[in-house]
Give the backbone structure.
Amino acid sequence: MDKIQTIKERIFFFLEKKGIRKETFYKETGMSSSNFKGAALKSDLGVDKLAKILIVYPELKENENLIWLITGNHELNLNPVQKKDQPAAEHHHEETNEKLGDLLANLFAQYNTQDKSILFVQKQISRIEKKYDEAILKQNKYLEEILSLAKHVTK
């Protein structure tokens, strides 16, 4: 099997393994199928949407499953094994939670950086639009002057 590249592709893999229809997934999560088709399939999944998926499908929050979902590392495990050694399991759980917290913090930081970049681009576009509007007004003023002079010359 080819390496699954995006979170959305891993979600489809999970749905396939669980025997869940895509239509059921869209209905349960309240997401649109257009977010998972064509070029949108390769785009990032927002943190809010990821949180909704984890609420609807809590087995994806299990230890390595969340790491698999976010990074593609590890394997999807739909049959988690209960550990008999409770203190060791709790320690492993704490380490995993710490790693997951770091991953989610990094993911949030990436989205935050993208948001700031988008805001910067929007401000630049706004400045360019303002300069463009000023140039058009100036051009219209010159055209009016030319037309006015042309009327005087033809009289």
The longest helix spans residues 86-154. The chain has a mean pLDDT of 82. Residues 34 and 40 are 7 Å apart (CA to CA). DSSP finds five helices and no strands in the chain.
